[in-house]
TrEMBL record:
Keywords: Endonuclease, Hydrolase, Nuclease. PANTHER family: SLL0198 PROTEIN-RELATED, SLL0888 PROTEIN. Residues 12-195 form the Putative restriction endonuclease domain. Pfam families: Uma2. InterPro entries: Nuclease_put_TT1808, Restrct_endonuc-II-like, Uma2. GO terms for molecular function: endonuclease activity. The lineage of its organism: Bacteria, Bacillati, Cyanobacteriota, Cyanophyceae, Nostocales. This is Uma2 family endonuclease. It comes from the Bacteria. CDD domains: DUF820-like.
């Protein structure tokens, strides 16, 4: 992850200049180049595929968009671009910008956000946990397939970890899963998913 902005940008600046550049986010007015690797994209693609299969099987009115920007705060120059997001199609008509741009501003439109951990693990385990909880997103998955997170977040010994964050009132409770463990998702109680299923070959 690299900070590349020379000047502070607004959300509107970001949208006009970086909407079509899929590897950039905005945090407090600074552009972040997320620099995804091939294995990172493999993991996020496999997660999206598993979720998509489950959505079809359960006949849920939800979908995983190819591109999606999230404004976690109304008054801050921060724009997130999750690795995977699940949207509720039945409420998107209430999104003020969705007709023109792939921008989500209301937490009720989002059922799940998934972040695949890379070198900026602090953001995924700390800041985004707070941002997504404030927005009211019911579930947030942190897929740390290389075990990069600090020991305060994934324990010792550091190892591949899949964290399911479930929103309870206004705070996430967290449950961690390791290799060979069946992941339990309150949002998708029937999904059959293990960390092993989404690792790069």
């Amino acid at each position: 992850m690299t900070y590349i902005s020379q000047k502070t940008l607004t959300k509107e600046d970001f949208l006009s200049q970086y909407q079509d550049k899929p590897h950039h986010e905005l945090a407090d007015g600074e552009i972040i180049d997320m620099e995804p690797t091939g294995p990172h994209e493999t993991v996020s693609g496999k997660v999206a595929t598993q979720i998509g299969i489950h959505l079809v099987a359960e006949q849920l009115p939800w979908f995983t968009p190819r591109t999606c920007l999230i404004y976690p705060f109304a008054d801050a120059a921060t724009v997130r671009r999750p690795d995977v997001v699940v949207l509720d199609e039945t409420v998107l008509d209430r999104e003020p910008q969705c007709e023109r741009e792939p921008v989500i501003t209301l937490g009720r439109s989002i059922k799940l956000v998934v972040e695949v951990v890379s070198s900026n693990w602090e953001t995924d385990y700390a800041r985004k946990v707070e941002e997504y909880a404030i927005l009211g997103i019911p579930e947030y998955w942190i897929v740390d397939y290389r075990g990069l997170g600090g020991v305060a977040f994934i324990g010792k010994p550091k190892q591949p970890t899949f964290t399911v964050c479930q929103l309870v009132e206004d705070t996430y409770t967290q449950k961690q899963y390791r290799l060979n463990q069946l992941i339990k998702s309150p949002l998708f109680p029937h999904i059959q998913l293990r960390l092993d299923d989404i690792l790069p070959r």
